[in-house]
Amino acid sequence: MAATEPVAIIGWSVSPMERRTDKTEAQLLLDVITDATAHAGISRADVDFTCAGSCDYVAGQAFSFVQNINAIGAWPPKRDSHVEMDGAWALYEAWVRLQLGDLDVALATGSGRSSTADPATIYPMEMDPYYLAPLGADAVSMAALQARVLLDAGLVTERQMATIAARTRRDAVANPHAQVSGEFDVDALLAGEYVRDPLRRHDLPPITDGACAVVLARGEKARELTDRPVWITGFAHVAEAHQPGVRDLRVSTSAARAAKAAGVAEGGPIDVAELQSAFTHEEPVLTAALGLGPEVAINPSGGPLAANPIMATGLVRIAEAARQIRDAGKRRALAHATSGPCLQQNLVCVLEEGR
Amino acid sequence: MSKNPCAIIGIGQTQHKSRRWDVSLGGLVREAASRALEDARLTWADVDAVVLGKAPDLFEGVMKPELYLTDALGAAGKPMFRVHTAGSVGGTTGIVAAHLVETGIHRTVLAVAYQKQSEGNAQFALGSGKGASLGAGGAFAPYMRSYIHRTGAPLDVGPMVAVKDRQNALKNPYAHLKLADISLEKVKASQMMWDPIRYLESCPSSDGACAVVLTDEAGGLAAAADGRPPAWVLASAVRSEPSSFPGRDAVWSAGAADCAADVYRQAGITRPREQIDCAELYVPFSWYEPMWLEAHHIVGHGEGWKLTERGDTALGGAFPVNMSGGVLSTNPIGASGLLRFAEAALQVRGMAGEHQVDGARVALAQAYGASAQYFSMWLVGSSPDPFA
Amino acid sequence: MTTYVESTVRFPYKRSLGPVIGQFMTGLTEARLLGIRADDRVIVPPVEWDPETGEQLAHEFVEVGPAGTVRSWCWVEKPTTQHPLDRPFAFALIELDGASTGFLHAVDAGRREAMTTGMRVVPRWRTERRGHITDVEAFVPGDQPLPVERAEPAGEPVTMMTYDAEVHYLTPVTENETRVGQAAAEGRFLGLRCPRCARLYVGGKNDCPICAVALTPQDEVDLPQRGTITNYVIITPVQYPGQTETEPFARVHVLLDGVDVVLMFQPVVDLANDDVRPGVRVSAVWTPPDGTGRRALAGWRPTGEPDVDDPALVNRIH
Ligand SMILES: [Zn+2]
Questions:
Q1: Per the CB < 8 Å rule, is A117 touching C209?
Q2: What is the pLDDT of residue B89?
Q3: Which residue ranges does chain B devote to CATH 3.40.47.10?
Q4: Which of B186, B228, B369, C25 has its CB 3.0 to 4.6 Å from that of C131, i.e. a possible disulfide?
């Protein structure tokens, strides 16, 4: 659905991305909210609505998000919400809320300390509780099954996957938040051992602790607060069937639907895309589904292969896409977030330069 | 830009029980959702988006269950959204769904909330698996002691609420607890769990789900023309405040007051006690009935228990509260908020059956969560403009 | 140096299966693999609703397999404790003969080189089957069904399963939490005064929730060790895995002398549950030094002073 009331991103902050931070989620959020509001030229008191994205099982505690509201300064009491989803969906709720027209400024966050537990023991818990979770069906294995389907179908090669890894790591050099970056030789990468055949280490994201905050403002308020608003001109998300075994893993029908609903193909070419392709082979699946041609720069930040703070990775994509417009002179950007096994659920956010 | 009207045209809930061992997790949410669609005379294909609410994933040991439940809720090819705002989540689920309609982003939205407490253990989950979990009653008992002290409420008021809500539940075919022989004496004789909260003044642990179909003005008018009255969302609001800081008053809390004031302002309500016909308030422990009547300024501070004591909050009273039997009779935690919101809608649609408040035109629903610090409320009416 | 606290969240969840999953699990006890018909497809494992349209499926079960074809696979070199095998194996999507979908399970192929897409596999059944997805221990390469003692049709249909979730967590102890612990080891109570609003918090807190600013060691103050009980709760413990309490226990709120700080849900020492009430004067009790000389707060013990006669104390919960 294309936006009916113009809403713009006016500020953001991405925390340092680390293998293991000594900060709690609330502390990470305290910092990124302070920085994002400063970036937007406002204070916490100016925020009319907040929405957070985080996950109890990542934190290892029921109601873990309750402590995180200390970071937003909810006094006097605030209009506030929380999604047990990536912060990109928190931003979606904030975007919806602003379109009611009675509030002007909203804040969305995503936070996750992936290091708190072994993701291989957490992720099976999001799978079908009868058939898949009891097998310990972990995210890396599910991704590897999709990669094999693509390889067997000739839709991608291991060399292409290594090339994607090398490119994102090279691009990540310029990203102060990147956890994995540098110059890597494709042949050397391909000489590496499989971690989960057909996936090698470079096909996988790192384990990352981090958080992100993004500030939204509506219409005139956005123009008043900044002369360079980054407008959200399309925003949609779509799910598909849960079990990988019932889906055609060569394609992402839900990403394609989300792109259509967000109007990606209308309104001019996409210059740059930040995709939550946490595994190398997901990039060609997504670019095909989203209709992104070779002319579109993909993940100039390095993407999730450079830093992958679960529950914030998707929101970071939106912040990085906004950065591409505001700081790198791009006109139209696409940000993507995903959740679930083999790209089960996909979100697309289209951003455009100020007009 | 002003909000588009939003109509509730379908409501469904499961048979609530302590153990719904006849269904899977998917089967539980499906039962409520199918009934809501049937009530709305819609098919799965008519639903544009699904909003799913539930409290902590540790209750059932399924992380981000919106992924697995996509199939059960017919959400393949559609947006599937998951909210979690502690105990208030059921309310938030309804509100986020309403926003999707009010903004014109979607035409028809299915809101579903559930909890299947029998899969796990609530005290375990509330304590995140650590020892000496206070449980919900342990966390709230001090607030009630403070309330009783500051208002001088007679000690029978809590037990009176416990009796009244259980009697209402006898009229609700979906309610979990059916205590036909409930009496003041029985409540007072039941074990003191967390002084001043007795066993029979506490909510049960339930398996259950609730679903609500929300649609736009055209959909609401079409239902009305078909002889199926919709409920119109007149106002909605949420508020959160920190768990603890020096001097925080969690009895008449600022968040509760602000949330209510927001709803009253949106709906043009200046005398809530007179202008609202009935209310479904989140009362998991008996004393929360008078506490919420006051904290949400339905009546003045110190006046809430008087309503209860006079019998005003009973089904035939001047201001009925928890006609459904409330959380005290049915508590699938994540669904409990949406059950309140749905019951308010049932009342103004005139479809509440034996627990119908005669002539209810405007109904209030509320849910709260965590350390009484998350609030969600909505106000629904039998017409979009009941005060015109 | 940052320290971490280890914890394990473990719970044996008890799941009811409903009519379709229950039928499949019952089939497993009989060493039979069932799918469900959905138009011209057969979905395995069977699901209750059409994954594409959401429509309810008729309960038309079809026996499939036991042999099947690997449609995709990956090699798990280092299994986790949650995986079905404790040695290297493959996860595979297996299209069982007669099925239209991929069934996820393990293939015990011994070595990676033995795996190919399109290979034929058959299930290796457990001898004792309980109606659980792991009744198939794993699939193994081959086209001919392995001999299996086919149980008689189950007397009772399988309706329930358990799921033992276990996750180990490593949570950082923040600097403030470490310092309050260190102070406690010396028998001292630390507080933190917000540099912006001057509200005083009990030590170990990381931020002022009113101002949303970090609290740091520079904000530390020593807190008094005497106070008054303002409010309380007696908890009747419910037993659950991980529960440490068996008898009703008290938790009290203590307003410290001379400062605006309430300690919430504190344990008590030498105070019977029946004697817990607002107004009781208490002081902190520390455990004797342990082997490393460290103390810890044991709880709050009555000082013997007369009760504080202030009925409004009960309102100080926070
Ligand atoms: Zn402060």
A1: no
A2: 97
A3: 7-121+205-225, 134-203+236-328+345-381
A4: C25
